[in-house]
Write a structure and sequence with these properties.
Pfam families: DUF2192. This is DUF2192 domain-containing protein. The structure is a single chain. Helix content is 71%, strand content 0%. It contains 12 helices and no strands.
Length: 231
């Protein structure tokens, strides 16, 4: 079941799929990005993000893809829509399966030796998890699998995404109210690091605060109370 904190977001994306199934032939990727942007702004929904704010709504095509394929089960019967409007996201999804199968270097090659594409594949898995379509174990497994690579670029992607995932889950906990004080924050951060199971730079408070504010609309007063410092 989708968490309450994401229910409105998934509903908006579901509504967009209703529009796409009727109008997809007259649309292109840029049109879909603008549709997402307009729908999010109308409902005060913010795109998923870390430090990098480039192309936030284009990245939300992954959320649309995940809801369509894994939430609504539209892929098989509506493949022409995916092939026209979400072909890059299909590629990310295919690469994510290679990562999960433990073939880190093959996944990097399929990514065109591009760290950003590899990160998009991880974002596909991440989005399935935050929308409760998959268990968190798949995120941990993916990050561990990438970390086994001898390629610095692949290991760097695993560590960077681990830091993002930790920061995101901490921000989510603050927004949901499951993290209400500094001790719980610290304990949760340590627990996440243990679950991920690789060495990586843990996120600083300003990273968590950024996601809490920019994705979940958590106010500064709450963040200051929990994190114990002005953010």
């Amino acid at each position: 079941m989708v968490k309450e904190i994401y229910r409105e977001r998934v509903k908006v994306l579901t509504d967009i799929w209703s529009l796409l199934t009727n109008s997809w032939e007259s649309l292109n990727r840029e049109d879909v990005i603008e549709i997402i942007k307009g729908a999010y702004n109308k409902r005060n929904i913010k795109p998923f993000r870390g430090f990098n704010a480039d192309g936030l709504y284009e990245k939300e095509l992954i959320s649309l893809f995940v809801v369509g394929k894994y939430g609504l089960g539209l892929f098989e019967d509506n493949k022409p829509i995916f092939d026209k409007l979400l072909v890059k996201e299909e590629e990310y999804d295919n690469i994510s399966k290679i990562i999960l199968n433990g073939n880190a270097d093959e996944a990097y090659e399929k990514s065109g030796n591009n760290k950003e594409t590899l990160a998009r594949a991880l974002r596909t898995i991440f989005t399935q998890i935050v929308f409760s379509f998959e268990s968190e174990d798949k995120m941990y497994k993916s990050l561990r699998n990438l970390n086994t690579s001898n390629k610095d670029e692949v290991k760097h992607t695993a560590k960077s995404f681990s830091r993002f995932y930790t920061a995101f889950k901490l921000a989510e906990g603050i927004a949901e109210g499951t993290i209400r004080d500094k001790l719980t924050y610290i304990a949760t951060k340590k627990a996440l690091a243990i679950s991920i199971g690789i060495e990586y730079p843990l996120p600083k408070m300003n990273y968590v605060a950024l996601i809490a504010k920019e994705v979940f609309n958590v106010n500064k007063k709450t963040l200051t109370k929990i994190l114990g410092t002005k953010v």
